[in-house]
């Protein structure tokens, strides 16, 4: 069913897509309406901007509560329960839609509809309206245009038929609710119910911010509401301190300090939060700023600085012990790794270096085998030296040399030139000890000549 009509309001055209049931509801100030909506651009594709059904929750609005997009009240008051209608609205009615849509999107994802907890400096807040955080809304805000609204009216409740929440109150009712919520939050704080207290403080702040948004910034009414909001925010931060939400405290108090740098309590609470997160410099700066603003806090600040000093000393000692244990553990793991992998290159290189530095400490059996092979090669080339070689090889024990067969010059050779010593040279020197020259170098040359001569008499394959 489609029925097009022009309402008695300029710039609105209505098309009924599905008729409702029953008599037309009575709409008075305070009437609560629940509905679904879909917003579309007036282009060929009818691009959908927002859809409450896709968001998974219907919209609720109170008639006469100064809703920013007041044209919606006009649209809904023309409908029956269960009716679905499409409304074309000219640009004169849609200019504020991007701002309303931002709040609705925040609600849909479980966030507050107002940005009271967004922490920016005063200058940034003045220019925050230039971006809504959504590209499509920013574009629509720069170039307002007509929109289609498809509405489905679900339920209508009279003021006496529901419990009114703070968002459903008008400005006068909101301001009356603030001290009540404030008192409830204080009571819960004293009972140690900090999380419940934060909800009361938060609700009161939202009430104030909703009213404050309609006042001109930095004028007397706005500043009065700002002071009330700051008091509630500091109470909110007091709860967060007890809940150990220190970084959130730093954010909220910094926001207050940026806009109102003379707020002593904000510096004090931020200093305590900085101390809890081990930021000694910032904590000390905040505490000293408290003294500048209120010298009467001297005793309290002196105590806080003493606590800060003690805590930092304990923290530094804990860090020292932690890093000490860390390095000890790393060293232990490295030692274990070397023991578990003895065939790695590093241990082999270490052994080679040790052998070069201490040749006398090499295994006796290995040296004896090498010398025995040399003896066998020499005897094969000259059988006449068999007796001499056998007697000499019996005496070659590096750890226990025979002093009677060694001259002082030979002992000197072993001590002064360990790196140039070879097992073949050792054998010849010991076998020809009686004919050795006092100079070690000629002996080595003589042995090389003998080895060359012996090798000439050897026949390959024998």
TrEMBL record:
This protein's UniProt keywords: Cytoplasm, Nucleus, Repeat, TPR repeat
Region (Disordered): 355-462
Polar residues: bias regions: 383-414, 421-431
Keyword set includes Nucleus: yes
Main location: cytoplasm
TPR repeats mapped onto the chain: 264-297
Function: May be important in protein trafficking and/or protein folding and stabilization.
Protein name: Aryl-hydrocarbon-interacting protein-like 1
Annotated source species: Danio rerio
Encoding gene (name): aipl1
